[in-house]
Design goal:
Helix content is 77%, strand content 0%. It is built from nine helices and no strands.
Length: 185
């Protein structure tokens, strides 16, 4: 039989998963305690037991998702040369249509970060860590200006996903060649 701490962790995870999915479906501002509790299959009072506010819940959910995504992306680069790494990045990007729930969660989190200082600080730290890991990977491969190239690569990824949200015909493959040449040094 699971302990009360295990049940509490499971409930918290259910709430975070439900909140993340709902942001992508209805938007940050439309997520309510009731919607999250219904989606998670728990009593609404548990939302406030685990989180101080809906904004805290949504921020935590967005940061957890962003952390996983950025860690997976950076880890996938670790063992491959830069040109192959760019291919991996673009292969992974194909799952983001710009209108899928994950893309929308990140876009909404970036917008909310301007109003929520803790979310902004959390996202800033995650993005800075990702850029540092990418720069280290590039530097180890002998890419000149690794910090600047890592910044450019990260901004390009974000921008491409946002552009695809506005125009579904955006094809990430058209920039793969120029970015491969950039990281090849």
């Amino acid at each position: 039989m699971p302990s009360s701490a295990d049940r509490g962790r499971r409930t918290r995870d259910q709430l975070l998963d439900a909140a993340a999915a709902l942001v992508g479906e209805v938007g940050w501002g439309a997520v309510t305690t009731r919607l999250v509790a219904e989606r998670a299959g728990v009593n609404a009072a548990l939302v406030h037991y685990h989180f101080s506010s809906v904004a805290d819940l949504l921020s935590t959910a967005a940061l957890r998702f962003a952390s996983r995504m950025l860690t997976e992306s950076a880890d996938a680069l670790r063992e491959v040369p830069p040109a192959e790494g760019v291919e991996r990045i673009f292969a992974d990007l194909t799952r983001f249509t710009g209108t899928d729930p994950e893309s929308l969660l990140l876009a909404e989190a970036f917008l909310a970060a301007h109003r929520l200082p803790d979310l902004r600080a959390g996202l800033s730290a995650l993005v800075a860590d990702f850029r540092a890991r990418v720069a280290d990977w590039l530097r180890a491969a002998g890419v000149p200006d690794a910090d600047a190239v890592a910044l450019l690569l990260g901004a390009a990824i974000d921008g491409l996903v946002l552009h695809r949200a506005l125009d579904s015909s955006v094809d990430f493959r058209v920039v793969a060649g120029p970015l491969r040449r950039l990281v090849a040094g």
